[in-house]
Amino acid sequence: MIITTEEDQIRLGKIADSEYEIYALLKQRYSPRIFREEKIKSGHIKQLFEAARWTASSFNRQPWRFIYAEKGTEAYDKMVDCMSDFNKSWAVNAPLLILTAYKEKTEEGKENFHALHDLGLSVGNMTVQAQYLDIALHHMAGINWEKAQKVFDVPEGYHVSTAIAVGYYGGNMEDLSEDLQESETAERTRMPQKDFAFEGKWQS
Questions:
Q1: Which terminus of the chain is more solvent-facing, meaning fewer CB atoms within 10 Å of its CB: N or C?
Q2: Class for the domain spanning 31-181
């Protein structure tokens, strides 16, 4: 690989140093706070949601729901306004924003205990598809979900969960504060497998 730009250097440095070999797209994925100033192609948007559509779900209930908006639209500005101040400081670099939500109950009116699990699987599918398209997703918990419910007229029985900043990898580091620039180039870390994968019984 010939390293020619700052973007190349950052992306090379972000490749996961996995203990065991895993799928290349998973190793290359990371969550940037800068993106190229380029609209997401409409076909690529459809591919992202198609990947989510074919996610496994409990009893095939498919409880995930999404609202999306392009930069420059009123809906986009409303999404930004629902975010935490920290996320507002950089999410405006993304050409596309998504709100995720899930259906809280089953068709029988019972709590769907697995709805959040299924929503997580769907955005996982979307993330891998995005990586294949050279699109970065930055998932955000920092959102005022109650405000978003009202602003976007989310009906009773559905719960806004997270937001996602979406854009093609790239962008200008100068669009970030000095602190965030340091974060953008920081080494990635993960806990070792022994701390979360236990054989036979739970281990302290």
A1: C
A2: alpha beta
